[in-house]
Design a protein that fits this description.
With about 450 residues, the protein is an alpha/beta fold. Helices cover about 30% and strands about 20% of the residues. The protein has 14 helices and 22 strands. The strands form five sheets. Strands 1, 2, 10, 11, 12, 13, 14 and 22 form an eight-stranded mixed beta sheet that branches. Strand 11 and strand 12 form a beta hairpin. Helix 3 packs across helix 5. The radius of gyration is 22 Å and the shape is globular.
Length: about 450
């Protein structure tokens, strides 16, 4: 992300790692199964569970997947790991995951952008330096425009915000939206993007997903237990699962807004109009990651280098090469290009990414290719997108979604972020949102 004005830390991180060894809290005096039901064991759900422990609140944590971590996931299927979802601990100076990593002894390192250098290609041919300079200047100018005063940025699309400033700005808006958000610029609110925090980033050599999994170790989690309905027409809530009904005083729902909007959980009675409107005003990008494993060949590419291949109609691949010395190239791409490439399944998507890489480095890459692993989060029924963004004209959707329903249903996750939603779209924001939801529920 680009630089933004610093926002003071408000102490939300206190105790983030202090209760890792506490057991599940169970009390028998309540007629309900628990004080709080937590739906989803991603970053927000795990943080909510730890906060319940800290406050002495009983909880039940359920997860539809057969693992914890949600969209923060380290793939090890190729024999060498890569983060298939979230990779960066953004704004690390105030991101709770930086504290968690330190507290439980997981190594992190500063993100030094592509120390091996950047290479830019268009349809397999090097992009002239003059063209690269124009792109850099337009991107910097667009970033400044969004940074100066987020409150002054109109709630229109990134595409419209850039259109009046020429083609270079339009290209910059497209690159920013597709590669940072996974979406087309005409579908992203400029104001929503402008309010996001930034700062120094950290990376986790052992995997961000592995860090999140370690943080959740020891928690009692009911895996492969999707919630299909939540009743809130009586006292407390009653949630229907494949394992029976769970009753609690309150529910913290960390399911992505796209999944909620698709009707995966039925609410009885229906959600209030403002909440339904908030869900309708939130989209999710299609940022996709494909790990390509090679047999040790390097194709004259230094370790930790980035190679960009820009195709026609805004299709762009970012190939991260040999990160941490591994025999992996990780292809990143998003927007409608990602939707097209992944439409025929993972095998076809891997083949398309490999062909794009071959156009840049030559046919030896095809000969040295060993295996691939694809993660198209927009095709995953438990996420239906990489992470959230507000649609143009709906920059207030995050705040509406964060409002409690009848003081017993609380939505929390990267979509609601933390501290005036500047932490949205990140695993750190999800952590803060999960903590905050528990505190609100516990304070009633």
């Amino acid at each position: 992300m680009t630089s933004r004005h610093p926002i003071s830390r408000r102490g939300l991180l206190a105790g983030a790692g202090a209760s890792l060894a506490l057991p599940y809290v169970a009390r028998g005096q309540s007629a309900n199964d628990a004080d709080i039901l937590i739906v989803g064991a991603g970053a927000a759900g795990l943080a909510a569970a730890r906060e319940c422990q800290r406050l002495g609140k009983s909880f039940i944590l359920v997860e539809a997947r057969d693992r914890t971590g949600g969209r923060v996931f380290t793939d090890t299927t190729l024999g060498e790991s890569f983060d298939a979802g979230a990779r960066y601990i953004h704004w690390a100076e105030r991101n709770p995951w930086a504290d968690v990593a330190r507290d439980i002894g997981v190594a992190t390192s500063p993100d030094i952008s592509a120390p091996g250098g950047f290479r830019f290609y268009a349809n397999g041919k090097p992009v002239p330096e003059a063209d690269r300079s124009v792109r850099r200047q337009a991107f910097a100018a667009l970033s400044r425009l969004l940074d100066d005063d987020p409150s002054e940025v109109p709630d229109i699309s990134l595409a419209d915000e850039a259109a009046a400033r020429g083609n270079a700005f339009a290209d910059a808006a497209g690159g920013l939206a597709r590669m940072a958000l996974g979406e087309e610029p005409e579908r992203v609110s400029a104001r929503d993007y402008a309010q996001l925090w930034s700062g120094a980033d950290l990376v986790v050599p052992g995997g961000y997903g592995a860090l999140v999994t370690a943080y959740g170790a020891g928690l009692r989690v009911l895996l492969s237990t999707p919630v299909t309905a939540i009743r809130w027409d009586g006292q407390g809530i009653a949630a229907e699962t494949n394992g029976g009904t769970i009753r609690a005083n309150a529910a913290i729902v960390t399911v992505p807004p796209t999944v909620l909007a698709a009707g995966a959980i039925r609410f009885i009675p229906d959600l209030p109009a403002d909440t339904r409107g908030a869900l309708a005003g939130l989209g999710a990008g299609a940022l996709t990651k494909i790990g390509l494993k090679f047999d040790g060949a390097r194709f004259d590419l230094p370790e930790n280098s980035d190679v960009f291949e820009i195709e026609d109609a805004g299709a762009t691949y970012d190939f991260e090469c040999w990160t941490f010395g591994r025999n992996l190239v990780v292809a990143n791409f998003g927007g409608d290009h990602a939707r097209r490439i992944t439409a025929d399944g993972n095998k076809a998507a891997i083949a398309a990414a490999l062909e794009a890489f071959v156009r840049v480095v030559g046919g030896d890459a095809r000969k040295s290719f060993a295996a691939g692993s694809a993660h198209a989060w927009h095709r995953d029924s438990f996420s239906l997108g990489c992470y959230s963004h507000c649609l143009p004209g709906h920059a207030g959707a995050r705040a509406k979604l964060a409002e409690p329903i009848a003081n017993r249903i609380f939505f929390a996750g990267e979509a609601t972020g933390g501290e005036d939603f500047g932490a949205a779209m990140t695993a750190g924001g999800a952590f803060l949102a999960g903590q905050a939801a528990v505190r609100r529920a516990a304070g009633l």
